[in-house]
Amino acid sequence: MSDVVREYLEGKGLRIRTGVKVEKLTGREGKVAGVKLSSGETVAADMVFMNVGVRPNTQLATDIGLEMGRFGIKVNAYQETSDPHILAGGDCVEKINFITGKPTPGQLRGPAVVQGRLAAKRLAGHEIAFPGVLDAGGCKMFDMTIAATGLTEENATREGFTPVSAVVDSRSKHGMIPGMKPWKLKLVFDKNTRKLIGGQIVSQDIAPAREIDAVTAFILGGKTISDLTTFTSACNPDISSEPSAEPITIAAEQALQKVKNG
Ligand SMILES: Cc1cc2nc3c(=O)[nH]c(=O)nc-3n(C[C@H](O)[C@H](O)[C@H](O)COP(=O)(O)OP(=O)(O)OC[C@H]3O[C@@H](n4cnc5c(N)ncnc54)[C@H](O)[C@@H]3O)c2cc1C
After folding, report:
1. Could you read off the pLDDT of 221-248 as tens digits, one per residue?
2. Alpha carbon distance 248, 229 (integer Å)
3. Are 185 and 199 in contact (CB under 8 A)?
4. Secondary structure of 27-57 as H, E, C letters
5. Is the CB of 108 inside a 6 Å radius of any atom of ligand 1?
6. What is the pLDDT of residue 262?
7. Could you tell me the CATH superfamily of domain 137-260?
8. Which residues lie below 8 Å from residue 57, measured CB to CB, with a gap of 6+?
9. What is the rounded CA–CA span in Å between residue 118 and residue 98?
10. What is the per-residue pLDDT for 255?
């Protein structure tokens, strides 16, 4: 999937370097002038952006002695901290990954909003547990939209799963309709349980990229390869591919063949 993104961005004139480190920024007359890479190359620059990640400000929680995890305040599934009179949610709390069950930062808007609501519901007497996060997200670069949820094949392997994956090309409209844009879906399943554990979409149209939410829903619902072979999508020539090109079912068909053949 990343090869498709790389080719697209390079076609737009971007130069992408992977597998090299930034060694230092070089300057001239008090301004940045370049970036020196571990490959020995120096890239000229007028401006440098650094993605350094985020860390929550949890000083208040630490000061009052709440139990902390590796990524933030520890809470149970009802957003209760180690002091049951104090509830917390959002970036400042440590999340649990829905698939691995392991602590994770999960610093995204969706969990922040829903955990805030859940904390309020808990105070109102509801017993609704937060299921964990899948780190679903996306971004748009030029006319390409990229979205992902759950585990990538690489992360799944690192977490001890045996992933089975399938990549399918689809289209935003029926093949005969003008304005049709291509999109690509990858699904990742766990070979042992046959459950869906991840998905990625690369699309020339925003709308199909939202299908990532369907993938998220299927993961949360514990759907398996067999379940997804029977998925029927809403279909209209102007708003979707023909059902025979619906990529979730095709990916499931391909994964079924792969697990059947060992
Ligand atoms: C540049 C950027 C882009 C992002 N883009 C996306 C995106 O596209 N999609 C997505 O899902 N997520 C995105 N995020 C992440 C998203 O913004 C956060 O996950 C979300 O804002 C977390 O909400 P929150 O309420 O937990 O924390 P925050 O929004 O950080 O709110 C916490 C508030 O608490 C205040 N505060 C802290 N300590 C105290 C104190 N002691 N007393 C009183 N107030 C205090 C802070 O000032 C702050 O206003 C992005 C984040 C950044 C930085």
Report:
1. 999 999 999 999 999 999 999 989 899 9
2. 8
3. yes
4. EECCEEEEEEECCCCEEECCCCCCCCCCCCC
5. yes
6. 67
7. FAD/NAD(P)-binding domain (3.50.50.60)
8. 92
9. 17
10. 98
| pLDDT above 80 (res 130) | yes
**Over residues 106-110, mean pLDDT:** 96
Asked if residue 112 has its Cβ within 6 Å of ligand 1, the reply is yes
User: Which residue among 54, 55, 57 has the greatest number of ligand 1 atoms within 8 angstroms of its CB, and so is best to mutate?
Assistant: 57
* 114 C-beta closer than 6 A to ligand 1: no
Question: 137-260: same fold as 59-123?
Answer: yes
- For ligand 1, atom 20: residue with the closest CA: 109
Report yes or no on whether pTM surpasses 0.90: yes
Identify which of 66, 109, 118, 134 to mutate to test ligand 1's pocket (most ligand atoms within 8 A of the CB). 109
| pLDDT value at 176 more than 70 | yes
Ordered by start, the domain boundaries in the chain are 22-51, 59-123, 137-260
Residue 208, φ and ψ in degrees, nearest 5 = -65, -25
Q: Are the beta carbons of 58 and 73 closer than 8 angstroms?
A: yes
Q: Which atom of ligand 1 is found nearest the CA of 56?
A: 30
Contact (Cβ atoms closer than 8 angstroms) between residue 136 and residue 148 = yes
Q: Which CATH class is domain 59-123?
A: alpha beta
pLDDT more than 70, % of the chain: 100
In this prediction, residue 261 carries a pLDDT of: 78
Residue 63 CB contacts under 8 Å (≥ 6 apart), including other chains? none
* Span 178-200, average pLDDT: 97
Q: Are 147 and 201 in contact (CB under 8 A)?
A: yes
